[in-house]
UniProtKB/TrEMBL annotation:
It holds the Pfam family Ribosomal_S20p. One of its GO terms (cellular component) is ribosome. Binds directly to 16S ribosomal RNA. It comes from Sellimonas caecigallum. InterPro entries: Ribosomal_bS20, Ribosomal_bS20_sf. This is Small ribosomal subunit protein bS20. Keywords: Ribonucleoprotein, Ribosomal protein, RNA-binding, rRNA-binding. Belongs to the bacterial ribosomal protein bS20 family.
Length: 87
């Protein structure tokens, strides 16, 4: 355990941010899974609905610095491509 006051604070802040990032990543993964499930079932309407939610969540995560912008773009591109393949 750290002895210096600022180091103790950094540990607390890092834990807080880690928890926040983990929650955001989990939410994104859930949204992505919903899109992939809809695509697997060939349900175009549900896939498009889930895609719009997923894109929103991915962009929010990118804006908060959880994901790099290129990672966000790649995820969105792959999901959109999958949805368009069944439409």
């Amino acid at each position: 355990m750290a002895n210096i006051k600022s180091a103790k604070k950094r540990i607390l802040v890092a834990e807080t941010r880690t928890a926040r990032n983990k929650a955001i990543k989990s939410k994104v993964k859930t949204c992505v899974k919903k899109v992939e499930t809809a695509v697997a079932k060939n349900d175009a309407a549900a896939a498009k609905e889930a895609l719009s939610v997923a894109i929103s969540e991915i962009n929010k995560a990118g804006g908060k610095g959880v994901y790099h912008k290129n990672t966000c773009g790649r995820k969105i591109s792959r999901l959109t491509k999958a949805v368009n393949s069944i439409a």
